[in-house]
Amino acid sequence: MRDSAPVEFDVRAGGGARDYGVVVGRGLLDRVGAYAAAAAPGVVRWIVIADDTVAGLYASRVAASCSPDGVDVLTFPAGESHKNRAQWADLTDRLLAAGAGRDAGIVALGGGVTGDLAGFVAATYLRGVPVVQVPTSIVAMVDSAVGGKTGVDTPAGKNLVGAFHPPAVVLVDPEAVGTLPRRQRAEGLAEAVKHGAIVDADYAREVGRQASALLAGDVSAVERMVVGSIRVKSQVVSRDEREGGLREILNFGHTLGHALEAASEYEVTHGEAVAVGMVLEARLGERVGCTRPGTAAELKALLEAVELPTAPPPGLDLSRARAFLSSDKKVRKGRPRFVLLSELGAVDDTGGRWARPVDDRVVSDVLESA
Amino acid sequence: MRDSAPVEFDVRAGGGARDYGVVVGRGLLDRVGAYAAAAAPGVVRWIVIADDTVAGLYASRVAASCSPDGVDVLTFPAGESHKNRAQWADLTDRLLAAGAGRDAGIVALGGGVTGDLAGFVAATYLRGVPVVQVPTSIVAMVDSAVGGKTGVDTPAGKNLVGAFHPPAVVLVDPEAVGTLPRRQRAEGLAEAVKHGAIVDADYAREVGRQASALLAGDVSAVERMVVGSIRVKSQVVSRDEREGGLREILNFGHTLGHALEAASEYEVTHGEAVAVGMVLEARLGERVGCTRPGTAAELKALLEAVELPTAPPPGLDLSRARAFLSSDKKVRKGRPRFVLLSELGAVDDTGGRWARPVDDRVVSDVLESA
Q1: Does B127 participate in catalysis according to the annotation?
Q2: Can B247 be counted among the known catalytic residues?
Q3: Percentage of chain B exceeding pLDDT 90
């Protein structure tokens, strides 16, 4: 692969929406306008939404690419705590005050919070206007910007309100990772390892081998990793746009991960929680007998290489985690369900179902012994 | 047509969503559960949302039809002023508190406000759960329950936030009109006359002939009228699910109607404003030369028969109405657009476009002389 040529993937949007492209290439931040115009030709006015941190780094370049005179940039305070309904309403009101009509479009410039929040604003503004996702964190590049999920948190939990609103196009400039703190880079690599774990063992192992370059923000290494992850995610999402079936495999590590994240009151980040969740769910699979022995150990080693935790933090209240387990969005008829591997790089498909309940005692056992 | 057998229409939902049925029949309020289960077999738990007025009249019957033990009924205060983001958030929080999961579904029981509000709750709850629309007002039966539009108002205007979320099924029991005040019945007939005006002159004239029976709430007359209107609306919506083209004809009377409604601070109801808007937009068409002379006068007579106003209320500030005109959602590049008739029962199609700008002076003239 040449680093300099943008790599493009096509994603089926489903829901009758136009399929969309995901483009990965260096310097795309300066070409957002051209790609956006080609992907959503009906839009006569773009408006950039970014948190105040990312806005300071990249908004002027992106705005200048949308129009020679620049375009409006709406900012909000950085951080997951601002991904809520009040911030959604405020951004909506500012769009209305700016006179944005149905022929406006949103550029969501930032990490996962911005993609979800600005995406939900776009999904609901005048019953929906186009959104271009421009992810600047690794988590958003490899995971949240692709797939059309948008939403905000409520006091009861994360992402409890939202909509499927496929983007017009996703533009990934790997150079943006240069400004990320190391812990945020590591966090993003959890989803990359997950993509390998469920579909492609070689890719998972390659992420492990490239760990130090990735953590240092080496642009070539990041670019290859992002391309590898988006290849997996775009294929899975294209085969199941709205989470009826195959897309469930993307939840590997997430059932226990979400519970640990919530039980820690989000002190443990999403990526860190998913890392722990993957190791524990691999052990769950080994205990249940569907996962090849040694898989959890190999996963653990890969995740340690990218500086991610592989056990719950000392002192975490596991009974709280168990309580969150039974209130998970994916609960069906009161029982949490788990995606289990058959081995590194493959999910166990039990009779065509990608997630299944596991005996409570086994779950408790694996949690306690971690 | 036999009054006793339910009449069914199929509507294309578009957006990849399942097509849905609209069923019209007496006594359907007691059969909501069976129809809902057939239309959304994945739902294991239904929750009814209704305003406190409608809840007192019909919620227990509907809830009992959903489960032998009844189901949860969430109520909110009646009235357009409660169709807002705060009420949407509150209903969402109560669903979360009740433990409703992705396998829950919403029954929106009531008039247009409830359909829009509960529909938007369903559209965004856990990124979308099924909704069954059970309209109990004439406006909702003939218009708002069919087509998948959901949303709430903001301080800047009506329906400025929302989503397209096609219902699983729409169940219309014409007996519900028995409890409506006469002014609300009249209001609903504006949309029925509109359906005739844009597609079927015979149907428009039949609504006029049946005026006294319809205003009195005669169930047979209402049933025939609802069937006639839904036939028109379901055909138009099926050919253009998301308002790219033909669906625009449903906005006949609405460009000026919305402006008058807003300028009156919603003292003039939506149906009343649309009635006035239709007469004025018919005159606009006559002035522009595309509408057969005499059309506005015939429309005016039909609307007077169903006890609807045909001129702005005395004292209304027309300059305010003009200001609202230029902030309408349908404005493109700053100019309001109008659907114009060629004659009663047919829309003028100028080069494949269903709405067009009209010279400001002509619009002002028609407004002033009304």
Answers
A1: yes
A2: yes
A3: 79
Which H or E run includes A259? helix A254-263
Nearest to B125 among A99, A101, A161 (CB): A161
- Domain ranges in chain B are 7-179, 182-239+246-369
Q: How far apart are alpha carbons B86 and B84 in whole angstroms?
A: 6
Q: pTM for the complete prediction?
A: 0.92
3 state DSSP class of A207:
helix
Q: Which of A101, A162, A330 is opposite residue B124, by nearest beta carbon?
A: A162
Structure tokens at B250: 């449903």
Q: Tokens 């939403």, residue?
A: A151
Q: What is the pLDDT of residues A124-160, one digit of tens each?
A: 999 999 999 999 999 999 988 888 999 999 998 889 9
Using the beta-carbon criterion (under 8 Å), do B92 and A127 form an inter-chain contact? no
Q: Which residue type occupies A190? A: A
Question: Could you tell me if A46 and A66 are in contact, meaning their C-beta atoms sit under 8 angstroms apart?
Answer: yes
Helix ranges, A44-181 (H)? 52-54, 60-66, 85-97, 112-124, 138-139
Architecture of domain B7-179: 3-Layer(aba) Sandwich (3.40)
Select which of B26, B205, B251, B287 is catalytic.
Answer: B251
Secondary-structure class of domain A182-239+246-369 per CATH? mainly alpha
pLDDT of residue B1: 41
Same fold, B7-179 and B182-239+246-369: no
Q: Burial, A334: exposed, middle or buried (Cβ in 10 Å; 0-12, 13-18, 19+)? A: exposed
Residues of chain A with C-beta less than 8 angstroms from the C-beta of B14: 16
Which of A26, A82, A231, A270 is flagged as catalytic?
A270
What does the alpha-carbon distance between residue A179 and residue A165 come to, in Å, rounded to a whole number?
A: 28
